[in-house]
Amino acid sequence: MSKIALVLGATGGIGGAVAQRLTASGWTVRAMHRAPDSVAVKHGYDWHTGDAMVFGDVAAAARGVSLIVHAVNPPGYRDWDKLVLPMLDNSIAAARANGAKILFPGTVYNYGPDAFPDIAEDAPQHPTARKGAIRVEMEARLRTYAEAGAGTVLIVRAGDFFGPGSANNWFSQLVPAGKRPAAVSYPGRSGVGHQWAYLPDVAETMVRLIETDGLDPFATFHMDGQWDADGTQMTDAMVRALGDPAIPVRKTPWWMMRLASPLVPTLREVLEMKYLWERPVRLFNGRIERVLGSEPRTPLNDAVRTTLASMGCL
């Protein structure tokens, strides 16, 4: 297998983390951007001009690759129903032309209450949210690609991302970036567990699995990541990193989001996923433990401090 990868979404959180980890493992990383000159100096890589919505652009950037990392999403959760499936179809078609493996970061959106609270890799996918239904369809198309024998698919599912380079996520809603916070906001219910995933650990897991021989043509894995059993461990780690035990932890004002949502499309999308903060939902990492022996896991205090430093909060 040639170690050439096309990473779609290389300027984002998970795409950027995977691109860095692939480079460290000796891969040549290609990336695509509408204006590559604006990002090439900061990120490096072999940049190609293009749009993930244009098949010709994706096909040209993917020529000769053995791996396509499909980590591109519409900004702010907007227009999922119009954009995510065409973008994935372009990646699948480009992978088919090269016999390439596809790496796809999965989500917990695929699952409904019948799979809660502990979700194994083979749990039924009966989502109740619109984005979850779209995610199920995306994975169905990836399965069709793999089962047709054109190439293989690796899906790694994890909790809410946090880490350096990741801005559009729930962690960034807990504290504002660019300044020392006066308070920490937490969206979950008291006593309800929540699952987080530190981006460098996710990227490490993904690349180890990519370089593992003998996986199924359509292979899915769940990460345990950082499990906050009662909703206080993450905020406690943030307060410790900030070095001030007097910093208050306040509840996220969902009611304000609801009032503003008719005018702010992103808030409407966020409110659709509120149910994931109202009850414990935990991905079970049995397959990763069997295949890799153990899951890469940075200590929570270190992960939180590094993330806050990257956000300019310390």
| Approximate strand percentage | 15-25%
* Alpha-beta content class: alpha/beta
- What do the pLDDT scores average to? 93
What is the number of E strands?
14
Order of SSEs, N→C?
A: EHEHEHEHEEHEEHEEHEEHEHHEHH
Q: Provide the CATH superfamily of the largest domain.
A: NAD(P)-binding Rossmann-like Domain
The CATH architecture term of the largest domain is 3-Layer(aba) Sandwich
Largest sheet: 7 strands, parallel
C-alpha geometry: globular
Question: What topology, given as strand order, has the largest sheet?
Answer: 3-2-1-4-5-7-11
Percent in helix:
25-40%
CATH fold naming of the largest domain: Rossmann fold
Q: State the oligomer.
A: single chain
Give the count of structural domains: 2
Our measurement of the CA-to-CA distance between the termini, rounded to an integer number of angstroms, reads 43 Å
List the total number of helices.
12
Low-confidence sequence ranges:
none
Instruction: Round the Cα radius of gyration to an integer and report it.
Output: 19 Å
CATH class bucket of the largest domain: Alpha Beta
